[in-house]
Structure formats: structure tokens, C-alpha cells
Amino acid sequence: MAQLWGGRFTKQTDKLAYAFNASISFDQRLLTQDIAGSCAHAKMLAAQGILTPHERDAILQGLKEILADTQSGKLKITEQYEDVHSFVEANLIERIGDIGKKLHTGRSRNDQVALDMKLYVREEIGNIDEELKELLQILLEKMKEHIDTIMPGFTHLQKAQPTTLAHHLGAYFEMFRRDRSRLADVKARLNLCPLGSGALAGTTYPLDRASTAKQLGFHGPTRNSMDSVSDRDYVIELLSALSIIMMHLSRFSEEIILWNSNEYRFVEIDDAYSTGSSIMPQKKNPDIAELVRGKTGRVYGALMSMLTTMKGIPLAYDKDMQEDKELTFDAIDTVKGCVRLFGGMLRTMKFCKPRMEESAKHGFTNATDAADYLVNHGVPFRDAHGIVGQLVLYGISHGKALDDLTLEEYHQFSPVFEKDVYDAISLKTCVEKRNTIGAPGHRAMEVEIAEAEEYLIRN
Questions:
Q1: How far apart are alpha carbons 102 and 46 in whole angstroms?
Q2: What superfamily does domain 110-358 belong to in CATH?
């Protein structure tokens, strides 16, 4: 097939070079966006007197039919076309004749592809945001269900202080809330329309760029035509935001993998989100969590590839930028799939509450509260810290939790301890008296959950 740019050339492109250069195998995903941009461009050209009303209507009808026939399977996108833009224009000319050749007036493939990619990314940001919102809804339901489920909190993977499962899950709620905010920032920044920038220096035709921007839902036109066609910052920002989403999912997956182990036994993953072993019949593997953790590197790779691709490109457009599409498409698909699967796994997961509480009890997570007990009875904190450290050492050597020591054993380390120490260091008390903003106490968590509910209603 003759190329749209072939007039200057006297011989055909080498077949291998053509295949290497072509992007139709992946940029066909932009068909809907390409036709939307072409429709807006045609309407603007007619409004400016560059096309007649008859020419506009013929072009719009032809574009509408191409989209419908492609979506129904009647019209196939094949590799005889160099890219999605060539596919649309060639089929339009075939259907309506020479009128179709006028559509490209005042436009370049450079501003065309920049527009298509922005429209695609903007739409997919909305889709990813909806997936994250659904995940937040699942997290919120689990937080409500487990507001009083005691578990150990960790630092350095060592048991540190008692907390609740609701409090732990609430930390991830905040992470994914920030992820939605980052996506909204990307969407706001990209929402300027490059259409009408031409190859790099605009055009001599009297285009109304504000009109096409408004038609396509942009805040307005981009301000510099060279930047318009060479800007891929929004792709890099999106890949960065997606990488952070995957990092959060990976952290959560790592915890689930740990909690699912025989050593922890905090969770039971539903059979629908687990697999077995081909040789060991007892195995129930956390494959979904492991794959989410593994696919994080795939999204990171897209970000690093795009940064590397763009780092040495002079103004304005260069063919290197074609590499943005496959990377971005794959990263978007990966993130959407991971968020959706992770949400399903979390929704069906069972938490072993007795085991979690028992783990908190036998991890000396109430040691800080024992020290606070002494401080509240006049012992300097540094001395209290040393006394309780000796108590913990004694408990370890005798196989006892602090709750299990007798008052006589407590008195071996300090006469300040009285019977009320048992209430002071009970896990329930340790959690319940922590009610500052953001803490795991019941009252504090009720406030946090109410605010989270309101956030999801508003957003």
C-alpha cells in the first residue's frame, strides 16, 4: 500500500525496515481516540470555512462507519497499514473519495498521535481510579469488621506493640487514597490539547485550537507547539504513579504471603485465589499475592524504559517516542488486573483472630505499656525501660508472656508493681487507651472509619 508520506520517495521501504518502523500492531488500540480527534478536527475545519458543510458531513459519516465496522469485526485492522492513523485515513478515502484527503488539512501525525495518547491516558486514569476506589471499599468493609481484632504491630519484622487489624488495614487505605490523588494530579496536568500544533511549528491555516480542545474535553490548547508534539511527561508521570500503586500492592502482598505461612497462620486465602503443588498435596500457595509482587518489577521497568528513552531526545518529535505506547499499554493492563485480583483475594480472605491475638500476647508487645505503668507510678522512664527489659528477658528464659508472670515474679524486679498491672498491660487495654488521632483505639478508629466513608462518598 502506498504510504501517506510517499511522494518524496522513489523506492519502496525495505520490508524489514517497514515492519520495524510500523506501529499498527499496538497503536490500533487508539482507534476510538483517533476517530474522536478526527471528528473534532473536521468540525473545526468546517466552522473555519476550510471545509464545506457537505465535506464535513461526509467525513463525519465515513469516520462513524469505520469505527462501527471495526468494532463489529466487519472491517479488520491489518498490518498492511503503517499505523492507526494511516488505517483510518486510507479507509476514509476509499469510502468517500477525494473529500477524505482533506481531513488532514492543518494536522500532522505528530500532533495527532500526541492527542490520541492523551485521550487514551486520560480515559484509563479514570478506569484505574475506579478499580482503586473499589479496593478502598473492600478495605473499609474489612476495617469495620475488624475494629477490635487485636494483632501484633511490627517494626523490623519484630513484634513491637499491639494494634488492631483495622488499624493495620487503615495504613493501606491511606496509601491507596494517595494513589488516587496522584492519578488526579496527572490527569489535571495532561489536560491540555495538542491538536493543531502540526509537526512542530503550527500551521498557516486559521485553525481554532480552543474549539477542538473544548470539543474533546480539555481545559484548553497547549501553549507551545514544539512542546506539544514532544511532551511525554504525562506518560512518565502516569508510569510513576502506577509504579507507586504496584509498590503498595507489593508491600501488602508480601505481608499476606507472610501471614499465610505456617509460622504466622494469620490468614486463610480463599481457594479461588490459591493454587496447589504438583508434587506436595498439602500445599496451598498464595500465587496471586506472589504474582502481584512479581509484576511490580514489570511496571517499574516500563517507567525506567520511558525515562531512558526520553533522556536524550532533542526537540521536537523523534521516532523514539513511539516506544511510549507498548510500555504504557502493558503497565495500565498490569495495574488494572493486579488491583482487581488483589481486591477479590482480600474480599474473600479469612483472618484468624485468635491466632493473631495470641501472637501479640506472646511477642511481649505490651512491654512499652508495662514501662508506662511504672512511669505513671513515679519511676523515671529510663529506669522503667531497664526494669521491663529485665522482665522480658526473664519471660523469654521461662517461656512466659508478661501477662502470665505472677505478682511475686514482678516484685523480683520492682516493688512498684501491684495487681492492677495486669489490667494495665492487657492487650485490650493497651489498644483501647490509644485514642489520639490516627491511633488504633476503638474511638479513634471509629473516627477514622467515618472519615474514610465520607471520603469515598465525596470521591
A1: 11
A2: Fumarase/aspartase (Central domain) (1.20.200.10)
Query: What is the reported pLDDT for 322?
Result: 93
DSSP string, 152-221: EEEETTEEEEEEEHHHHHHHHHHHHHHHHHHHHHHHHHH-EE-TT-TTTT--SS---HHHHHHHTT-SEE
Based on the residue annotation, tell me whether 277 is a catalytic residue of this protein.
Answer: yes
Q: Give the pairing type, strands 192-193 and 220-221.
A: parallel
Selected catalytic residue, list 156, 240, 414, 426 = 156
Based on the number of CB atoms within 10 Å of its own CB, is 209 exposed (0-12), middle (13-18) or buried (19 or more)? buried
In the chain, residues under CATH classification 1.10.275.10 are 6-105
CB 181 within 8 A of CB 232: no
DSSP conformation class of 275:
B
pLDDT of residue 21: 72
Q: Look up residue 183 and give its three cell numbers.
A: 492519578
Q: Could you confirm whether 54 is annotated as catalytic? A: no
The tens digit of pLDDT for each residue in 258-271 reads 999 999 999 999 99
* pLDDT recorded at residue 321: 93
Catalytic residue among 25, 181, 261, 277: 277
Report the distance separating Cα 216 and Cα 38, nearest Å. 11
DSSP state of 315: S
Which CATH architecture group holds 362-451?
Answer: Orthogonal Bundle (1.10)
pTM for this prediction: 0.92
3-state secondary structure of 347: helix
Whole-number Å distance between alpha carbons of 39 and 115: 13
The contacts of residue 406 (CB under 8 Å, 6+ apart) are none
Task: For residue range 335-382, list pLDDT tens digits in order.
Answer: 999 999 999 999 999 999 999 999 998 888 899 999 999 999 999 999
